[in-house]
Automatic annotation (TrEMBL):
GO terms for biological process: carbohydrate metabolic process; tricarboxylic acid cycle. Belongs to the citrate synthase family. Pfam families: Citrate_synt (PF00285). It catalyses: oxaloacetate + acetyl-CoA + H2O = citrate + CoA + H(+). The active site is at H259, D313. SUPFAM superfamilies: Citrate synthase. GO terms for cellular component: cytosol. One of its GO terms (molecular function) is citrate synthase activity. Keywords: Transferase, Tricarboxylic acid cycle. This is Citrate synthase. The keyword Transferase applies.
Length: 377
């Protein structure tokens, strides 16, 4: 029988200049630059442009791109009305999926699939995702939707629209770093889904709607939400070691721990851990951080030798929580960041497109004949 790569693990189907991952050593780079340097020195706007064009921008190019993002933050009135009339019980990712699909109906350029059109649509979607997600949250909570401002950074404007008040420079920068860390991560399930849709020469809105559907699944985008559920179950730092030891003894899954690619610390988790500690101490919310710290030590001591370590979801939830973001919106925030990687990967793959058409090993019956309906038992 042919060898089957379950989950397509290890299967190479394309080339990319965007992201490199060495899971054994915990390395992640974009355009060859370590993720730690992007987080320390760059902005989400710059990384988004770098991914779209597969090269570092000049100051002039970045200024132009930033101006385009700011100018495209507003969403059509028809979409605002749709969001306001969505069922309050709808999952935020369902709402986002529907909103993006509807946005495509309103865009006169939506059916264009040239490189120029894909890039132009990508810029608008990167700008508008933040407005859509903030609007969904406000509408579901029965609050008035806050219009975007052009004088704030991408991260700062989102927090302003989300909470109805302008964030501090420190809060805006912290969220900016969180977006940078989630912007792209190679051929993950949602990026692969976007590319698969794109390979049929479908439009950008269909590609991104497909990606949102893939990200919605709890095995992909929902882990950081489950980490917060776990922290609430633990309750206090003095109970954390016993809680995790019991789970490990029962061989139960620990959310935010382990990764399909990384067999060492996820480098993004190391960046977020440092910020989570600073924010927790400053805001007087050290309880969550102390629980995570204890869980991490227990996990590393017990199963670190098996290549199982905390991933980016382990600390991201506490950072989002400290920024006033409720846990049901953690996955939409993931999409807010990953829209850049999705768009960039679709654009890159479409430059040398080939329809994706994998195969499966047939394991069904053979040499059968049709049995009349009345003769079947």
């Amino acid at each position: 029988m042919s060898n089957i790569a379950k989950g397509l693990e290890g299967v190479l189907f394309t080339e990319s200049k965007l992201t490199f991952i060495n899971g054994a050593e915990g390395i992640l780079t974009h355009l060859g630059i370590p993720i730690q340097e992007w987080a320390e020195k760059s902005t989400f706007e710059e990384l988004s442009l770098a991914l779209l064009d597969a090269e570092l921008p000049t100051a002039e190019e970045l200024a132009k791109f930033d101006a385009e993002l700011r100018a495209n933050r507003s969403i059509p009135a028809e979409l605002v009305e749709l969001i306001e009339n969505m069922p309050r019980r709808a999952h935020p990712m369902q709402a986002l999926r529907t909103a993006v699909s509807y946005l495509g109906l309103l865009d006169p350029q939506s059916e264009e699939v040239s490189q120029e059109a894909r890039r132009a649509i990508s810029i608008r979607m990167i700008a508008q995702f933040s407005t859509i997600i903030a609007a969904i949250k406000r509408a579901q909570e029965g609050q008035p939707i806050v219009a975007p401002r052009q004088d704030l950074t991408h991260a700062g404007n989102f927090l302003y629209m989300l909470n109805g008040k302008e964030p501090t420079a420190e809060q805006a920068r912290l969220f900016d770093i969180a977006l940078i860390l989630h912007a792209d991560h190679g051929m993950n399930a949602s990026t692969f889904t976007a590319i698969a849709t794109s390979s049929t020469i479908s439009d950008m809105y269909s590609c991104i709607t497909s990606a949102i559907g893939a990200l919605k699944g709890p095995l992909h985008g929902g882990a950081n939400e489950q980490v917060m559920v776990m922290l609430d179950e633990v309750g206090s730092p003095d109970k954390a070691a016993e809680y995790i030891t019991d789970k490990l003894d029962k061989k139960e899954k620990i959310m935010g721990v382990g990764h399909r690619v990384y067999k060492y610390f996820d480098p993004r988790s190391r960046v977020l851990r440092d910020y989570a500690e600073v924010v927790a101490n400053k805001e007087g919310r050290s309880n969550y951080y102390q629980i995570l710290e204890t869980i991490e030590k227990t996990v590393v001591d017990r199963i670190g030798s098996k290549g199982i370590y905390p991933n980016v979801d382990f600390y991201s939830g506490t950072v989002y929580s400290d920024l006033g973001i409720s846990k049901e919106y953690f996955t939409p925030i993931f999409a807010l960041a990953r829209i850049s990687g999705w768009c960039a990967s679709v654009i890159e793959y479409s430059r040398d497109n080939r329809l994706l058409r994998p195969d499966a090993v047939y394991t069904g019956l053979s040499d059968q004949h049709y049995t009349e309906l009345q003769d079947r038992q």
